[in-house]
Amino acid sequence: MLELIRMGGWVMYPIILSSICSLAVVIYKFFQLTVLQSDPEKVLKTLRNSYAQGGSLEALTMLRGLKGPVASMCRTALQSRAEDREALKELLGKSAQSEVYGMEKNMLVLETTATVAPLLGLLGTVTGMIRSFNVLNALGGITAPSQLAGGIAEALITTAAGLIVAAPTVLGHSYFTAQIDRHVSVMMLAETEIVDTILNGKEDA
Fold it and tell me: What is the pTM of this model?
């Protein structure tokens, strides 16, 4: 591996750096969007049952350990002083926007890496070919194919490295974008139920 990095030349270092950044973001987003998420149905059921039994304080207590955008929206609604439907919906809309912003955080890193990594690989291809032509120029022609091996190896290794970094990054970006879209849809559906649960509960109280 170290030998391949050496043969790839200096372009390998920004490619490796971009791969590390991409991997870190992929791991972070996976836990943020997939692992550390409470089931929205469970959250809404907890809200309905606890609010009916003990109002806002009881609901906040029961929701304390639940995570995810829907749970956050529920807590925002319970802590608000909104008395009418429109005010509460506006508040939840702002809460949802804040959640979307948090979910989209660092996605630009994946998008940039997916674009830049192949370009860095292409740059390595160019520098490798320049290196080979410099050898040809210095020797006045080819005396042995091995004399071009270093430049050709640099060109091929950097091209492959750029693609190896870009391909999984594109897949990760697509997967997380789909997850964010799913969360947005769930939040839109949950908004109505949260409003109905809280306002109907206040009317019954």
Answer: 0.82
